[in-house]
Specification:
This protein is mostly beta strands. The protein contains one helix and 13 strands, in the order βββαββββββββββ. The strands form three sheets. Strands 2, 4, 5, 6, 9, 12 and 13 form a seven-stranded mixed beta sheet that branches. Strands 1-3-8-7 form a four-stranded antiparallel beta sheet, with no helix packed on it. A two-stranded antiparallel ribbon has the order 10-11. The model has no long low-confidence stretch (mean pLDDT 95).
Length: 125
């Protein structure tokens, strides 16, 4: 059982910024793939950003490239998602995750992917 502590969600106007953070054990955050997913009402959960921890390679969904930045602080066992230039379509529940995959640049989940409890991000026009 993975214990996550997520924070940083909230409500902002379009164009604003938020930073999400997620703290877990060192073991969890050193899994091969860690990242962020989001799920909007009525939509499937989608991968937003991921880090392949062995190589350090970083991937983003096309919809957030140039606006979102994922980072990891190993000393604090914390994963971050800096979100700038937010749009109403970014409104969703955001989940940190460990055990994700990246195939042909697409961020996905596996059967054993572990998710945080989620934090709501709401962007108003």
């Amino acid at each position: 059982q993975v214990t996550w502590v997520e924070s940083g969600g909230g409500s902002v106007q379009a164009g604003g910024s938020l930073t999400l953070s997620c703290t877990a054990s060192a073991f969890t955050l050193n899994r091969v793939c860690v990242g962020w997913f989001r799920q909007a009402p009525g939509k499937e959960r989608e991968g937003v950003a991921a880090i392949l921890t062995r190589s350090g390679w970083i991937y983003y969904a096309d919809s957030v490239k140039g606006r979102f930045t994922i980072s990891k602080d190993n000393a604090k066992n914390t994963l971050y998602l800096q979100m700038n230039s937010l749009k109403p379509e970014d409104t969703a529940m955001y989940y940190c995750a460990a055990g994700c995959t990246v195939v042909s640049g697409e961020i996905g989940a596996q059967q054993h992917t572990d998710y945080g409890q989620g934090t709501q991000v709401t962007v108003s026009a």
